[in-house]
Amino acid sequence: MGELTVVGKSVERKDGRVKVTGRARYAGDLVAPGMLHGKLLRSPLAHAKILNIDTSKAEALPGVMAVITGKDFPGIPYGVRPDTRDQLPMPITKVHHFGEGVAAVAAVDEDTAEEALELIKVDYEELPVVLTAEDALKPDAPPVNEFKESNLAYSSHFNFGNVEKGFKEADYIREETFSSQRVTVGFIEPHACLAEVDPTGRILLQGSKQSPYITWRHMCRALGIPLSKMRIVNPFVGGAFSGKHDPFDVDFAAVRLAQKTGRPVKIVLNYDEVLAAYRQRNAMDARLRLGVKKNGAITALEAECVLEGGPICGIGPFNIYYFGAFLNIPYKIPAIEYHGKLVYSNRSPCGTVRGQEIVLAQFALDSLLHMIGEEIGVDPVEMRMVNAVTDNWTTANGIVVDVSGLPRCIEKSAEVIKWRASRKSRPKGRGIGFSCASHPSGPRLGGHFGSSVVLKLVEDGKVIVTHGGTEIGQGCNTVFCQMVAEVLGLPIEDVEQGVSDSDTTIFSPGMFGDRCTFWDGNATILAAKDLKRQLAEIAAKELQVDPEELEFKNRRIFVKEAPEKGIDFLLAVRKAYYEQGKPLYGRGYWAATDIDIVDWKTGKGNLAHGLDFIATAIELEVDEETGTVTLLKSAHADDAGQPINPLMLDGQVLGGSTHMIGHALMEESHYDEKGQAMNYTWRDYKQPTSMDVPLEAVVEHIHTHDPYGPFGAKGAGEASSCSTLAAIANGIYDAVGVRIKDLPITPEKILKALKQKEGK
Amino acid sequence: MFIRRLPKFEYHAPTSLTEAVDLLVKYGDNAKVFAGGTDLLVSMKKRETVPEHLINLKGIEGLKDIHYDETEGIKIGGLVTLGELERSKIIKEKIGILWDAVIVMAAPQIRNLGTIGGNLCSAIPSADTAPPLMASDASVRVVGKNVKRTVLVKDFFKGPRESVLNTDEILTEVIIPNPPENSGGAYLKLMRRKAMDLALVGVAASLTLDGDEKVCKDARIALGAVAPTPIRALKAEEVLLNKEINEDLAAEAGRVASQEARPISDIRASEEYRREMIGVLTKRAIMEAFKRVK
Amino acid sequence: MKEVEIELKVNGVNYKVKIKPWRTLIEVLRDTLGLIGTKKSCNEGECGACTVIMDGRSVTSCLVLALDAQGKDILTIEGLADGEKLNPIQEAFLKHGAIQCGFCTPGMVMSTKALLDENPNPTLEEIRRGISGNLCRCTGYQHIIDAIQAAARSGGKE
Question: Cα(A428)–Cα(A623) distance, rounded to whole angstroms?
Fold first, then answer.
């Protein structure tokens, strides 16, 4: 391919200008003629039978056009898997968590809609509440989900390699427990949706959705309508981080109200509703037992994990598999036994959050690795170097690592954080913590899984890219334009992002698991090559050479060996359109074929390509009198293969890490003993501000070349989310000698631990 | 349960204090005054308070100045915003203990709206301007129908969200006597993160030393967020009197202060932690105040 | 209840609108004037997404009554660029990767403008404090801080 001219450069975001001028439209900004405003009535109880809902007074209020409840839907449950269909659009027989939407109103204005909510009378019969996995699994625990008898929603059991032998061979074995709290996803744009029945009679949905495909499949099933009867057009999305994959009551209510009234209905939530009742990260309890040799090399791992997931399975079955599967990476673990349980409860429904379960698994594993290293006298950096996955490694459960820059990542992060110097001397209360992590580039989850891209070459020589991914801020729109520009030898200005409309776009299965750059990127390259082939044929005929001899660069198509012999790119385009009367489209479809659909119950299989590797070092200070932690510096060395847009890649790394600073130190969604959410306001749910991030943050790119990735790139959005928790926990230990294994690590916990330490 | 759009109200924009007071007399408990609105409007959106009449005080002249006089001290109009206090050289140089508080309150946008009068009248236990003003022997001017009175800030609070203001009264001015010679003051605030948060614990300490700047002649320690109202820690102050300030003494004062307080446990922090932090912050505030004695 | 007629000056344009007295500035900007650039999220002053500049000072427009904004000079994100020519702050945000999903961006840019208008040469600490009232979940703030430093250095020149 030669030297890259557009790929690998930090070109300006394609959607940057519209966003920075306030012109970008998000779901809440959309309007339609005759639009009504919708609002949801929410349950004040965490677990209760719905005996009756009297909507008559609300319906009679002038200005109210329709009121609906769960009974206005066919009652067809949906879910991620055929064996986990446990969700309804809105509850019919009972409510499962605080703030669950039980009724929805569409009115001519928002004030009327709010007023109407007050007129709806709901009769509940309270049911006992289960909040923790432990309580939910007790024999007399009330069943949480009406579609399942047991509160054990899913389980996963692996056994790979010879764990018993591994432990026998170990020179040292250690067992520890870890736990992690409920946290909200924390995107800034609240859920919003505009639904209407379009002029053709189909439902048109424009919502803040991360995965329109998933939304579409679930919604059509639950509404009892054919797939062809729903069209989705994506506005800009104000952050998602896996909190906006599935359809919510917001989307269902807007659609049903639009159907009932025949008018467009817009529902925009206030953020406190999001904090109270929408997607959170599973609470986790885990026990890990790790065996190592004298030099720190791991010989075996045995682990148990319980994830508490709220009243739905959602993506939970994948989460519980994922936790175990990614205990296997980024370190070489010859044998692993794992038992995971996903449990229902009456807290807010869980999906997953940036980094998914790897975030939690890595917190446990990298904390444990540090603890063991200290006991056997192996330095944290060395501990990781000894175990780091290298090229062409296959994990015990069959995940294939093609290329790993991890050893270089570890060296680099240690260098940037000045690790060696810090061992000689450092101020009191200051410490450095390490963690590594790996994240795949798009797992295969069954069903539709490939990516499709269509390129339209406009008569003026510009290309419009229509891809099936969803721009949620991660920058995929820009990255694909870069790839097209690179293949076709055009400047980035000549390639534009088209609309995201299911009428013209084949949506990819969803925007999760770092799949975008990798899967849609590969499809983009194929589409660009398709266009290139068509243009090469035209140019070849014109120049009377073989298409193979041609190169595309700087808006020209010319003979590689004789560059002066060529034609303008635009001329080839016009020849197609005007001489041949042939419009130019490029089509590309890509799906990884040598990966497996893994059985989440047993865990065997090659989940994905493009394992991204990261090593994170965080330097921090602990105030031993108050327990407050101040982050001083973070150093991330990331192997994302060939960075497509280095500046945007840095943004992903820094953003993911900052997100987890919140998880590590200050975020928690609290519930009281009756399951009522307690801090569903940003006044009391504290996410990191600009004052909470490290004073200095460095991202270094460790270049490798992934054999399957577009231009050798790997997905990079979530690795740093996975490596930050343990880096902070280990840093606190290094600073003041206390080990906190239950997140969040609050000042109170640090102080308590310091006192216990002194007491010894 | 959830935040809503504002409820209906009748809006009034008096241009004089008399007019404002008359409105309060007329509407009594059905009216609420507001300046910045950062506290009131949120309460209204949560339907915690639903006044039928809203009286905007910002049109009243003469309540927006900061004035320094060598004898009379610092006078701050009730409608002076926290942002204006933050930007004021007078406040930073003459009454640094108050400046310490305003720069850690809420967020820049809120500081541009919220006023010192509003912060005091909200009477929330964690109001950050209260401890520094209490520690500076500040007082407030209150105007009602046929009433003009001066109340010491330390006597201004009755309970959580309850001040001594009668229904027809408006806080018009904050008066801070000039700190005596050889004085220094500091305010420290403990939060759950490094910005945009309420105080878990707030401590203001003001010291006056003798001519040699060694022995403490006078001490004021005020605590916020750790009792039903902001309070003075009188016993802790006594610990410091007529003694030379050093870290051990400051720590002792801190210990005493933590016993004087009545913190609670809530989702923000536990009672034990708050109590312990009163000790730590008091010690630090005293030492910082000591450092600042010129 | 009765609507009132108010005059608002936004981005140099005088508007005359009829609204209910209990409308907040953000609601009028977005729903009545169609200026959707300013975003609404928490509606209680805790996120900064709704930040606009009023008489030179940044404020959370969800906590300002529209009535109360009369007679003031209001600047929203739509008022920064001069046609296609972006404000140096906007250019710096683009150049330094300070924008990802873009939802916090209008508020963040307005807080930046208020900061730099008052303090053209802020220290790193002053920058971090200056935007401490604006939540962002995507970027981790670092690129935003870089952009603000660059905008300050360029001193308003391109």
Answer: 10
Q: What is the mean pLDDT of residues B134-159?
A: 97
A748:B273 CB<8 A: yes
All domains of chain C, ordered by start, with CATH? 4-79 (3.10.20.30), 88-153 (1.10.150.120)
Query: Rounded to an integer, what distance in angstroms lies between the CA atom of residue A187 and that of residue C136?
Result: 8
**Token reading at A203:** 């439902």
Q: Left, alpha or beta for A744 (phi > 0: left; psi -120 to 50: alpha)?
A: beta
Dump the DSSP string for A46-97.
SSEEEEEEE-HHHHHSTTEEEEEEGGGS----B-SSGGG--B-SS-SSEE-S
* A620 in Cβ contact with A429 (< 8 Å): no
Most C CBs within 10 Å: which of A187, A690, A692, A693, as the mutation test of the C interface? A690
CB contact under 8 A, A666 and B192: yes
B214: how many CB neighbours lie within 10 A of its CB?
A: 13
Residue by residue, DSSP assigns A488-499 as HT--GGGEEE--
Radius of gyration for chain B, computed over Cα atoms and rounded to the nearest angstrom: 19
In whole angstroms, what is the distance from residue A636 CA to residue A617 CA?
6
Does the predicted TM-score (pTM) go above 0.95?
yes
- Interface contact B9, partner A, CB < 8 A: no
d(CA A757, CA A227): 61
Q: A44 to chain B: nearest residue by CA?
A: B1
A188-240 confidence digits (pLDDT tens): 999 999 999 988 889 999 999 999 999 999 999 999 999 999 999 999 999 99
Indicate if the pLDDT at residue A752 is higher than 80.
yes
Q: Residue A163 — φ and ψ, nearest 5°? A: -65, -40
Average pLDDT over residues B256-268: 96
Q: How confident is the model at residue A1 (pLDDT cuts 50, 70, 90)?
A: very low
Across the interface, do C132 and A689 touch by the CB < 8 Å criterion? yes
Say how many C-beta atoms besides its own lie within 10 A of residue A504's C-beta. Answer: 12
Q: Give the pair of three-digit tokens for residue A276.
A: 């109270």
Token representation of residue A12? 């300006």
Q: What is the pLDDT of residue C156?
A: 57
Cβ(B193)–Cβ(A684) under 8 Å? no
